[in-house]
Every structure is written in C-alpha cells, then in structure tokens.
Amino acid sequence: MLELLQRIFRRDSYKTSKDVAHERLRLVLMHDRLDLSPKVLDELRTDLMNVIKEYMVIDEKTMEINLEKDQNCVALVANIPVIRMKRLPHS
Amino acid sequence: MGEVFVITSGKGGVGKTTTTANIGTALAMLGYRVVMVDADIGLRNLDVVMGLENRIVYDLVDVAHGRCRLRQALIRDRRFETLYLLPAAQTKDKNAISPEQMKSLCEEIKNECDYLLVDCPAGIEQGFRNAIAGADRAIVVTTPEVAAVRDADRIIGLLEASEVRNPLLIINRIRPKMVRTGDMLDVDDVIEHLAIELLGIVPDDEAIIVSTNKGEPAVLNPHSKAGEAYRNISRRITGEEVPFMNLENGGGLMDRVRRLLGLRTS
Prior knowledge:
The complex is a heterodimer of chains A (about 90) and B (about 270). Chain A is an alpha+beta fold and about 90 residues long. Chain A has helices spanning about 1-10, 15-35, 40-50, and strands spanning about 55-60, 65-70, 75-80, 80-85. Chain A has a domain at about 35-90. Chain B has helices at about 15-30, 45-50, 60-65, 70-75, 100-110, 125-135, 145-160, 175-180, 185-195, 205-215, 225-235, 255-260, and strands at about 5-10, 35-40, 75, 85, 115-120, 135-140, 170-175, 195-205. The longest helix of chain B is centred in the middle third of the chain and has 16 residues, at about 145-160. The interface between A and B is medium-sized, with 17 and 21 residues.
C-alpha cells in the first residue's frame, strides 16, 4: 500500500524499477567496457604523463596507473611520484 | 549496387528475425529489390516468419558449396515480386560456411538488388562472424531490458573491432504504459547507454504474434502499431526523414490525475 502511494505521488526518494535498471546497466556496462587492452592502457598512461609533465617533473619509471573496481564503483587510481614542480607563468 | 545490412543483437529473442522480415517486406512494398539472407545455420526461422517454409529447395550452404546456383536457391516472396529469401541450412555443422564464403556471396547478391538484409544468429561466435562478414552496415536490435542492452553493447564493440562502422539502433518491444509508470527503461535511457544512432522504436504489439502465426509480416497489417514502426524504419533506411512515432496517447486515468496535480516527473 505504501509503495502504491509512493508511486502515485512519485516522491523523489522513491526509486522506480526503471531507475534501478538504469543504475544496474550503468555499472554492468562500465565493468564490461573496463576490459581495456594493455595497449589502450599504455596509450592512456602516455597521454596522462604528457599532460602532467606540463606542470611538474614526475618519475616516469615508478608511476603506476590502474583501474580499480569494486561492487559499486570504478576508479582510475594513479600513483605518480613528483620530483619537482615547474615554475608556472601565472602562479 | 545494393547495400548490405546485418541485423544483429547478441542476445536471442529480442526480435532480429521479426525485424529482418518486416524491414525486408516494407522495403519491397516501397518498390525496392530486396534479398533477405537467413544466416542462422541450424536454427532457421526467417522462412517461417515470412510464410515461405514450404518452398525451400536449396539453401545458403548449398550455394556457398556450389551445389546449386544462387538463382536456384533464392525463394521469391508470394506477395512481392522484388522480395527474395535465401534460407539457412538446417545442418548441425556450425562451420558449414566460412566468413570468406559469406563475403563473396554477399558481393554476388548485392550486385542484383538494392538492399541485402542478413539475419544474424544470437551469440558472438562463428555464426556472428559469418553474418557480419559481408556487411556494409549493422542494425542492432535491443529491448529495454538490462540483459539485452548489455549484450547490444558487447555487439557494438565487436562490430567496431570488425570495422562495421556506425551501427544503427532499433529499440523493440517498448511498452509505453510501463515507461510512463517508471517500470521500463525508456528510449533515452537506452540511447544514453549505447550511444549510437537511433533508427527506430517499435512498440510491443500483439499483432506481431498473430502475424508470426500466419507467416505474414506485420508491415502488411495497416492497423498494427509495430507494423507502422517498421514501415517508418524502412523509409528511414532509404534516406527519408521520418519523425519517430509518438507512443504517448493520452495515458491512463492515474496519469491524467498526476499530470493535473503537477506531480508527474516526466
């Protein structure tokens, strides 16, 4: 009965089964697409490095980039040792 | 020279064969020369959906292996003389045909028609590889369910890897009432996830079951909503701009009450 009332008045907190499906789909597709080839991961690493190098000197040999996943989220985790900051024109 | 479309989905039972039969028939209704190829070897069904199952003599594998000429295997539709079907074989050997054979067969057929539609089997194995081998473009069919959309996403990835670019999307079996009550993914949700071009939306329609029972594609039925959707899709394939069907028709009582009270969110 409560569910019926909530549905009729569609409270913001109430999740319809469509909302649930949408969220599940988002996660499942993210996990499926995460299956990046080493080549793609390498390209990402190079691109990232090039951007960061504009601002600081980093230790390219020990930097690490990984995709970490758990049940509800996926994170791109990067551990990039900074050796020195560059002197930026506007800082 | 014709264009080759493969109709695919990944998941089974979402309406590939129905889609192939209806688009093929609707294109023939528009006067185009159409050949439909059933690439589901071992599980052929397009012949039944088209009502042509009693006229099969030769099949796809016979042609590929040179046991007959292409012309002998093509079955002409009862209703439209520019519509042909090349049935699948019912053999159990999944490797009865190779992607190379399929490709050269498509090349041969497309010289003599405007549209060649390949009905792809479910799955991502050999049958899928064969079906897409000669395709210029792909039509991905999905339904508004998590499993079907997920499989469609896999298929889109595989199509891209196989250099079949810019696939088109058909969302099948939409139930407007369930979408309204928030119990079904809507068209926007699906497009947001898959991010490919929308070719058409097909409402869930009991007329499809009736038409399959009779072997008469729903596009022949002027009262079928799904039939109308497929006729629109076919016109879009020919390059015509056709607005997407409006599936909202007033709504139920509760909907009207909700709208009146301003409580309806979408």
